[in-house]
Amino acid sequence: MEQGAFIIVIPMIACLLAWLMMPFDFRTNTTLRKRALVERLNALLPQTQCGKCSYDGCQPYAEAIASGKADINNCPPGGDETIRNISTLLGRDMKKLESEHEQQLQQHVVLIDEQICIGCVKCINACPVDAIIGAAKQMHTVISKACTGCELCIAPCPVDCISLVPVNVEIKKWVWTKPQPEFEVST
Amino acid sequence: MTRELHSFPGGLQMPTFKTLSDQEMSILHPLPERLILPLQQHIGIPSQPCVSIGDKVLKGQTIARAFGYVSVPMHASTSGKIIDIGDYPVPHPSELKAPCIVIESDGEDKLFDIRPTNEYASVDPKELQDVIRECGIIGLGGAGFPAHVKLNEGVENAVDTLIINGVECEPYITCDDRLIQEKASYVVAGTRMIRHAVQAKHCVIAVEEDMPAAYAELEKLIDDDIELVKVPTRYPAGGEKQLIQVLTGKEVPSGGLPIHAGIVMHNVATAAAVFRAVTRGEPVISRYVTVTGLVEKSRNLQVLLGTTVKDCIKACNFEADENCRVILGGPMMGMHVTNPDVPVIKTTNCILVQENIPRLPEMPCIRCGNCVDVCPVNLLPQQLYWFAKTDNTEASQRHHIFDCIECGCCSYVCPSNIPLVQYYRYGKSQIAAEERRRDGADHASARFAARNERLQKDEREKQSVKEEKRIANQKEDKQSYINAAVERSKAKRALNKKTLEDTNKDD
Amino acid sequence: MTELFLVFIAACLANNLVLDYLLGTSAVFAVSRKIETAIGLSIAMLVILPVTSMFTYAINLCILTPFDLEFLRLLFFVILVSLIVLLIEKILKKYWPILHEKTAVFIPILLVNTSLVGAVLINIQQNQGLITSLFFGIGSASGFGLVVVIFTALRDRIIVSDIPVAFQGASIMLITLGILSMAFMGFTGLA
Q1: Cβ neighbours for B229, distance < 8 A, ≥ 6 positions apart
Q2: Which of A:26-85 have CB within 8 Å of C?
């Protein structure tokens, strides 16, 4: 029995020592994996670039989540759906939205009151997706299809001519509501 | 040649209540004063109006043109004047309004100049397709898919079997039964036309076992070219995929179409409409509708499209009030309408008036598995319920939620009274909405990237302009330096010259 | 041959690492959110545990016992297990890159996993030979994998259920593990 063991043990110890001689290499492509993770997180965010998560846009927020600096439940336009998707990706528990803003889910667009607009281009410079067309001293107007409801244009406007309007529900975009049972659930 | 019948998994035996309305001949609904015709009665792109307010139209005249491939035109159901083109309530679960054309009938019911297609058997199948499209024919069994698209698939892919579906499996509904009994010749002739259009090798007309009169009528008219089959009564044997499984034993692949199994299926009413369209040029302007339930006189009516549901119920000596619930369709798959002024459209097969008893409360799921036993598509309703409830869209899709035909068998047997189909509809619409949001996000992301590029380009241009200016300034400095140096040397030379002259002078 | 099979069955079902010895429960909880991670950890254990148990048995037999160093067993094995895990990771990376991709993320869990060290020590306690150690390792890893997969499925159902507030989170998981442990007690007479 002892002889048999020796036949296995000695080569194994030899391998071990040989391996120990090599320098330890703990780098396991963490940079590459992290970048892939950031990409995947960014793909789950709604891309409104609104800054309500207190980061400069969706990509910086994704980077913050990946490096652990930010929590996963700070995105109001994404709402519960985004939090759920991120929690599934990272293997964490689902959380409620924690933000001073309400959940939105891309249901608002902005509207410029053309009577009041003075053509100052401040809102055009503020819009992260170039959804406002116009030029200096010319009329500005919002392309509703491109507007994500990020509200970044409302603050810069010096004459307060931009307002938030809900998107009309058409038959094509109508969704069924979830049945609400009457019994109480503790979660 | 008797066909060997197979069976589909699950399903239910249910009380059918068909004798309430199938005993008598159908009657023509009297001409209503006003007809409301929605521009979208089919799956696909809504048709576009080609008349204006105030125009006078004749019965069968095209009032809206098809828009795109998956679309059909719409025709006036009677003669009269167009009084409005606008948003009116339509039979849709959202209870929203949709664009409609409203015709005020002039009482004369004057027919438009419609033309038949002669000698259909020698006509090119493509031409038949055009005729069928122009007459506005869609799946009249309730699906509403434009018939010419299905026919085109038949022309492009080899069709093994054409199945004409007369299996009316849902309780209370008898409109197809009465149609076959009264217009069997239309059905059979239409079947032959469709068979010519898709060049099918085999042709089957299927009826349910509890429709003996309809079976007898059809038997008189068929030859060896068409097979007439009686299918055992079981809900939902009339569903497209289920009927295919019963008649051929083949299963339509998940997410696939019957044409992938070499089969094309049409409803008996569609076949009758094809006959009308080809032999008379008559478009789809009326249909058989069963009015049943609490109404005093349950029967089938031949209703002009655009007649309101309220009028149809009135024609059966009943007034729907708050104690009644009006359902368009059957008790399993029908749609509850709260506004009785919605019109009858091409896909309305039944108006069911029920007592408005309060629903039993939903209780927690006990994981009994009754729902799994009865699902005709072999899905896992219990799992789909949990996933839809917890908004787990990824798991729902993995469990094939989109293969659910929403037949209602699972809700029927649930001991906890859980409205399972409502959960699945919610789940499906959430997935669709999520996809729309993702498309919106991609769109926004592309615009954001384009904007960044634009700003960077502007920045680069600004930099290059600055650079050029700087170089130009440098050049200028250099030039002035040179000029200054030249001046200095000139001045020096002049001075030297002067001093030389002076010294020479002195000498 | 039958003895080896019995060793395998005993290690897998009757004396399950997670449910009888209650080792590695944190690893079970960490990976049982998704079925993919659960299977990943099971495969990683299946690759590492047999090799580790054989190797440590041999080390114990040839180095520790002859030199009367049994008291160093725990210390030695903890370090040795970590080194072996890293070594196996390197070998996998070179020769089976696909397998390596799937299991590399679990290396941190395995390095400090009580179940690995515990299994190795139990094996030495049993002291039944080198080949038996191999089968013991395979059996323990299979048992661990079985429990992890079962627990993932249970967890899916627990999460969607209506749990009283006092029991939400770790409490209900531990209670479930306990009940599962009682269920596995039924295998006691098997080996």
Answers
A1: B3, B5, B204, B205, B206, B207, B247
A2: 28
Q: Determine whether B317 is exposed, middle or buried from the number of CB atoms within 10 Å of its CB (0-12, 13-18, 19+).
A: exposed
Dump the DSSP string for C33-51.
TSHHHHHHHHHHHHHHHHH
A100 vs A82, more confident:
A82
Which tokens hold the place of C13?
Answer: 């079902």
3-state secondary structure chain A: CHHHHHHHHHHHHHHHHHHHHCCCCCCCCHHHHHHHHHHHHHHHCCCCCCCCCCCCCHHHHHHHHHCCCCCCCCCCCCHHHHHHHHHHHHCCCCCCCCCCCCCCCCCEEEEECCCCCCCCCHHHHHCCCCCEECCCCCCCEECCCCCCCCCCCCCCCCCCCEEEEECCCCCCCCCCCCCCCCCCCCC
Cis peptide bond upstream of B236, omega within 30:
yes
Residue of C nearest to B387 (CA): C160
Angle of CA points B458, B462, B463, to nearest 5°: 120
Contacts across the A-B interface (CB distance below 8 Å): 87
Q: How far is Cα of residue C29 from the mean position of the Cα atoms in its chain?
A: 13
- The predicted-structure confidence for B362-378, as pLDDT tens digits, reads as follows 999 999 999 999 999 99
Residues of chain B contacting residue A174, judged by C-beta atoms under 8 Å apart: 92, 94, 96, 429
- A6 has pLDDT over 70: no
The tokens describing B87, both together, are: 């948003």
Question: A114: distance to nearest CA of chain B, Å?
Answer: 24
Q: Cβ separation of B436 and A88 shorter than 8 Å?
A: no
pLDDT-derived band of residue A24, with 50, 70 and 90 as boundaries? very low
Q: Rounded to whole angstroms, how far apart are CA atoms A162 and C9?
A: 73
Sequence spans of domains, chain B: 18-337, 370-432
Q: What is the CATH number of domain A107-168?
A: 3.30.70.20
- 3-state SS string over B427-489? HHHHHHHHHHHHHHHHHHHHHHHHHHHHHHHHHHHHHHHHHHHHHHHHHHHHHHHHHHHHHHH
Give the C-alpha distances (Å, rounded to integers) separating B170 from B5, B211, B236, B298, B350.
20, 13, 7, 16, 10
pLDDT tens, residue by residue, B246-301: 999 999 999 888 988 889 999 999 999 999 998 888 999 999 999 999 988 899 99
| Torsion angle (degrees, nearest 10) of CA A15, A18, A21, A25 | -60
Fold equal for A30-90 and A107-168: no
Could C163 and A1 be called an inter-chain contact, meaning their C-beta atoms sit closer than 8 Å?
no
Strand partners, B336: B327
SS3 of B64, please? strand
Q: What is the CATH number of domain B18-337?
A: 3.40.50.11540
- Adjacent-strand bridge partners of A142: A132
Question: Tell me: domain A30-90, CATH 3.30.1490.100, correct?
Answer: no
Distance CA B329, CA B326 (A): 9
What is the domain partition of chain A in residue ranges? Answer: 30-90, 107-168
Q: Say yes or no for a CB contact (<8 Å) between B386 and C162.
A: no
Asked if B333 contacts B366 with a C-beta cutoff of 8 angstroms, the reply is no
**Whether pLDDT at B398 is above 50:** yes
For the entire predicted model, the pTM comes to 0.84
Q: Are strands B161-166 and B48-49 parallel, antiparallel or unpaired?
A: unpaired
What is the per-residue pLDDT across B294-306, written as a single tens digit (0 to 9) for each?
988 899 999 999 9
ipTM exceeds 0.90, yes or no: no
**Cβ-based neighbour number of residue B127 at 10 Å:** 12
